[in-house]
Design brief:
With 122 residues, the protein is mainly β. Helix content is 0%, strand content 48%. It has no helices and eleven strands.
């Protein structure tokens, strides 16, 4: 499977961004999908995941602000990020795991894209 992210950029605090991840060489119906971020000076963090049944999970730091969705017809997975804060700045990676049902920890998903940079500053 190949994952290509897009949609990153710079935004002021309180702003929004929507990240997209195109899944190629397979269909997203076969995968748990998620987003991982690397914030400078911090451990990698699994921020969101969506399983093959459409169930979603979020890290505490983004719960209520970020939403993960998918478009099966287009093999796309999205991360809608609202209420962005400077601490959300980092590289965001799409991740995939060919696993049906409940996902494992998104940090353990074996497939990952090249990432897209998100910068939140005033």
């Amino acid at each position: 499977v190949q994952l290509v992210e897009s949609g990153g950029g710079s935004v002021q605090p309180g702003g929004s961004l929507k990240l997209s991840c195109k899944v190629s060489n397979d269909t997203i119906e076969n995968f748990c999908l998620g987003w991982v971020r690397q914030v400078p000076g911090k451990e990698r963090e699994g921020v969101a995941a969506i399983d093959t049944d459409g169930g979603t999970t979020y890290s505490d730091s983004v719960q209520g602000r970020f939403t993960i969705t998918r478009d099966k017809a287009k093999d796309l997975v999205y991360l809608q990020m609202n209420g962005l804060q400077p601490e959300d700045t980092g590289m965001y990676y799409c991740a995939a795991d060919q696993l049906y049902g409940t996902c494992r920890d998104v940090l353990d998903f074996p497939a990952r894209g090249q990432g897209t940079q998100v910068t939140v500053s005033s």
